[in-house]
Design brief:
Elements (H helix, E strand, L loop, with lengths): L15 E7 L2 H14 L5 E6 L5 H12 L13 E4 L7 E6 L6 H6 L2 H5 L2 E6 L12 E8 L5 E8 L3 H14 L2
Parallel strand pairs: 2-5, 2-6, 4-5
Antiparallel strand pairs: 1-7, 3-4, 6-7
Helix pairs in contact: 1-2, 1-5
């Protein structure tokens, strides 16, 4: 936390259980920007982790990488925030499923219609949002005692495999 840039290492030998160490808030934002730059309409990213694990910070980075307009803030009390696309981009639909009772309430939000035209990021979505898309990226954020984070990425669907490799390449070049 001394302000120095640290390397974000991604192990892409497997699309299940790939781990990214995020030492600082800037690392989290940078990783989010790299991920956001490769998101496209129809993508679903599911975020999980305890309170304070960095889900909203990661989403801020994703939005910056996508070039969306507006401030990214947690949608806890409004459930869904739509961030308009920047030039030549796609919009970001940011969902907080924390207060939802399950998949039925998530389905009531009609996200499947948004998913075709947007990239959708769902905080607290693990166990309730997987039915929205056959292909998806799940990221579990674990806040460590030293205040670093470990992000475990699980990709489902063939189109995520090459993007995981591209994400690794982008992060290794960002330092």
């Amino acid at each position: 936390m001394n302000g120095e840039s640290t390397e974000v290492a991604v192990d892409v030998r497997s699309t299940e259980g790939t781990t990214v160490r995020l030492d600082t808030l800037e690392d989290t934002l940078r990783f989010g920007r790299s991920l956001g730059a490769m998101l496209r309409a129809g993508d679903l990213v599911i975020l999980s982790g305890s309170l304070g694990a960095g889900k909203t910070a990661l989403t801020k980075g994703i939005g910056a990488g996508m070039g969306v307009t507006g401030t990214i803030a947690s949608p806890t009390f409004v459930l869904v925030r739509v961030h308009p696309a920047g030039p030549d981009g796609v919009q970001l639909v940011h969902v907080d499923a924390y207060r939802l009772a399950g998949a039925v309430e998530l389905d009531d939000l009609d996200l499947d219609t948004d998913l075709t035209a947007s990239a959708v990021v769902i905080e607290w979505g693990e166990g309730v949002a997987e039915q929205l898309a056959d292909a998806r990226l799940t990221i579990h954020l674990d806040r460590r005692p030293d205040d670093t984070r470990l992000a475990t990425l699980t990709a489902v669907g063939d189109d995520w495999t090459p993007r995981m490799a591209a994400l690794s390449a982008a992060d290794s070049q960002s330092d």
